[in-house]
Amino acid sequence: MTEPLNLDTTYEDLMAQKLAGVDPSLDTREGTSLIYNATAANSIEIIQMLFTLKNQIDLVFADTAPREYLIRRATERGMKPYEATNARLKGVFNIDVPIGSRFSLDELNYVVIEKVEFGKFVVECETSGSIGNLFLGPIIPIEYIDGLTSAELTDVLIPGEDEEDTEAFRTRYFNSFDSTAFGGNRKDYKDKVSALQGVGGVRVYRAWNGGGTVKLVIINSQYDKPSQALVDSVQEAVDPLSEQEEGVGIAPIDHIVTVFPVGETSIDVTLNITYQDGWTWPDIESNVFQTIDNYFNELAKEWAESDDDYTGVVVRISQIETRLLGVDGVLDIANTMLNGAQSNIALDQESIPKRGVVSG
């Protein structure tokens, strides 16, 4: 009996299987025999059918499905990719500008949506996504505003986020099977708070200030310390201060939730660098700063994505030295010190590293 075909069967395997069942006395030479030619044509059709079938199977399983079909599969669990959001920034003006007035900076436009105090407003980027976080500085009114002589974006209050990446969404889908979010358990808080605009991660601590209290420590979606505006926004969404314990927000009734920003621990870095010929510290300073910032940002992302809320990240000398060896102008590096000591620094569970003074 012929063995059943599997979806990975090749054309060559299929031809060998078919020709093996032909009477040896018959001509099966390639290109000259009718049997070979007929078998080849039939095998090509079968291989095409197997390919189509395999492709269809890949579409419906979450580990291989492309974005469209992954979304359809995840919908069965009530999940969908996080949508892109619009950055909100702090706008500083010499006068009170009208709500709804629009400004431009390079290729982006912004609209004034809320007054904070005299001359200070919340401004929203009209283009969704992380691009709205990138630019600060003077902005130009799209329409004339009488008395306006200065207008500037000074800070990102709530970062804009890009639409959730396919692989990140796939990971979140599979992670949803590991633990179940329910009625204010840890998973529920993490899922719902992380889904709020501008939040990159959250750590949850029970009974931090007595029974029924919950402490949330958040980091923004750029893996930096969040602004007070973002902290206030999350507090309002989770458990408004004016109605705490009432179950008005995300938090269940009887939960008293307080939201805090992740702390920052300043790390001074003292470097002992051997330079390549012709290079000095001023030549490499900015690249060194960027390299250290990138490493600290990786640690902040690790903090945000960790499942262990009670373990802090570790700033390692070896990691800093390894990365700095890739900077142009650096020949060698040794005896690096962090905060004055030649040892790694383990941060507390609610802090991320921030570059302090760097000397080379």
What does this structure look like?
The chain has 360 residues and is α+β, with helices and mostly antiparallel strands. The protein folds into 4 domains: 11-60; 88-158, no CATH class; 179-261; 263-359, no CATH class. It is built from 8 helices and 15 strands. It has helices at residues 11-20, 34-60, 67-75, 166-175, 186-194, 228-238, 281-305, 317-324, and strands spanning 88-93, 102-105, 108-117, 120-125, 137-138, 140-141, 151-158, 199-206, 213-220, 256-261, 263-275, 314-315, 330-338, 345-346, 351-359. Helix 6 links the parallel strand 9 and strand 10 (256-261). Helix 1 (11-20) crosses helix 2. The model has no long low-confidence stretch (mean pLDDT 92). Residues 181-261 form the Baseplate J-like central domain. Residues 267-359 form the Baseplate J-like C-terminal domain. This is Phage tail protein.
Keywords:
360 residues; alpha+beta; 7-stranded antiparallel sheet; 3-stranded mixed sheet; 30% helix; 26% strand; extended; Baseplate_J-like_C; Phage tail protein; Baseplate_J_M; Phage_Baseplate_Assmbl_Protein
Annotation field: number of helices? 8
pLDDT < 50 runs, ≥5 residues: none
N- to C-terminal separation?
Answer: 76 Å
What would the principal axes of the Cα set say about the shape? extended
Major sheet attributes: 7 strands, antiparallel
Computed Rg? 29 Å
The averaged pLDDT comes out at 92
Across the major sheet, the strand order is: 5-7-1-4-3-2-6
Number of DSSP-assigned strands? 15
Overall structural class, as computed from helix and strand content, comes to alpha+beta
Family: Belongs to the Mu gp47/PBSX XkdT family.
Organism: Cytobacillus solani
Protein name: Phage tail protein
Domain Baseplate J-like central: 181-261
